[in-house]
């Protein structure tokens, strides 16, 4: 892999080229490269060509020695008055210059022009040169994607109401008045009447953001709330007449793949139950891990009527908690079916269903007295109904359907002919039918590896310029280390902006931006997954020379932007707090996250989704972008692709399942111009501004050992995560095609941190550990504790411990830390 001027850090000792017939000694870098360089030097010494023995830029094709060797110095060497023809006087110019030693600005990458803002002696790879060209033709700037009629919005025909679907007036009234939902969505129209009327299993498939949660919850609540008759004493364990209450029975279990989604479902459920004159006696609850099992057991003992659970935790309680009585369960719902399967819950779900079957007291026909089914429950399904929900119809969902559904109804939203066509196109994407909501405007940008960080800054900045209300942006990364890195970079950016703004408003009492403790700026507190404002009493103003806003990083995001992060390696309380803050803050806000936030989360009013790293499957893509454009609202999504094979993703996935005009290629020049230009600039001054911003980040990282390790770790994890693209996608996302040096720049590193062991990849990959990588990748939703909680995960737990130990010994990241 060419290195394009990215230094490999050969430390050429002062006596490297001194002494006849002795090969120079090389330190650092790869052993093979050192040997190669040594052999070459020996060859030249044998030939008496000592000048050539001295490594210089581009020597031996590795390009590792990026030593700017001014002509004048070469001349001096040749004019040396030392009579020994083999003597090469030590010349420090041969050594990689230190900033203090150099007087002339460097000439990066043969362009002759150092990036603007480069300090004398700084060796910096330019953002704008040596980038691979796009392999697809960039046509004239494409128009922005067209606005299309929403496909997941509430129906506007006027004839369909919640009451006409068969829901009770109490619920219907609550939905329209309290929850301000004007009308049902298309999937609600199709599914709710069926689920109220029949006792059939059902597979519900509908676009992201189309209201699937209410689609299955409303019929369940509607039917349970009809159980209003007090139970006669003959039917109660106590032998006394009882009104319906939490201990009357567990009627429904809802399974969801993540804790966040489970909590969300429980919240929606609570809002329904608390309808005016509603079924307040119904008690919902959850068992999702992340808290002591003891408290969950206590809750189960008290009694719940509807239980939301993650599969592993539920199975655990089914096997170990005696007070959990599932004999009357009428509904089992599996939300986000495809994700449940991707996370390897097939076996767990199979065991859950088997236990439910075994413990069920439901007769196969009409409930009769003495059968264990209390009278008055005739309004409930006569058999256990299983409902499977998914936005996609992948093979694994079909498999889950096979093991869990019997004679199921396949329910989907009625669609126009055009939308049906788009759905069928989605099928070709190799993952079963899927389409994104039509009103979601999608674009892709072909961004070279070196420019990825500045491109993110440009897109974020633009997002805040365009919006009038409170913009909410989600940025998806492939791994948690990358989330952590970008969170640090942009937190610092916001701190600096706030400090510069403070300085501008009150230049005499400028705030020291270098000291977190004394800053009144937005302060990064990664512990709670978000930036936070210091309280006024924390303020300690220092008299400092005024900061000059002009010298602060040129682009600004937004003065009051709040940054959040979310990934599976964060403790649960932090995950919950970050999500809560992200969804409730009145300020413009950004969430840096992994795929842990991709599924099912209903985060209100997301304006823009940025896929900084490509998704790991077409359905991941669909779910990520599906966090915006929900329930008929508008939304935009952009994905960054590297020039080269990655551009193949446009045809193979992005163009599938989109309507005409819904996807456009973003003009990268325009993207940078809009992000970095100030006013109307005739020259490409925005390039200089972008370079300066990048340099500012690079310098900070170079000078801060902690940040350097955060960046290096993120770089390594990013590459390892990239290597987990599977099957058909590997042609498009081949780790062998990655330029590690260029990627290092996008993590603010001037040199690639070293070799990296990447399964199946270049750069010294040993081919080992792929299965672990894939397993860990596929466990993105869960933290380690969650994964370990799953029964049957002993093998995985052991494997992870062994791998962690090995990696620790090698001084590598303790795992790919994806999630
Ligand atoms: N009839 C309706 N009218 C307006 N908004 C609705 C309606 N039904 C549901 N919603 C809202 O739509 C949003 C998305 O709902 P929900 O989370 O159930 O979607 P989903 O189909 O499950 O999406 P995903 O596949 O991404 O999980 C929620 O904010 C919900 O309150």
TrEMBL record:
Keywords: ATP-binding, Helicase, Hydrolase, Nucleotide-binding, Nucleus, Ribosome biogenesis, RNA-binding, rRNA processing. One of its GO terms (biological process) is rRNA processing. Residues 501-514 have a biased composition (Low complexity). Residues 36-47, 532-545 have a biased composition (Basic residues). Residues 759-770 have a biased composition (Gly residues). Residues 439-680 form the Helicase C-terminal domain. Signal peptide: none annotated. Residues 193-411 form the Helicase ATP-binding domain. Its EC number is 3.6.4.13. InterPro entries: DEAD/DEAH_box_helicase_dom, Helicase_ATP-bd, Helicase_C-like, P-loop_NTPase, SPB4-like_CTE. GO terms for cellular component: nucleolus. It is an enzyme of class 3 (hydrolase). RNA helicase. The Q motif is unique to and characteristic of the DEAD box family of RNA helicases and controls ATP binding and hydrolysis. Belongs to the DEAD box helicase family. This is ATP-dependent RNA helicase. The lineage of its organism: Eukaryota, Fungi, Dikarya, Ascomycota, Pezizomycotina.
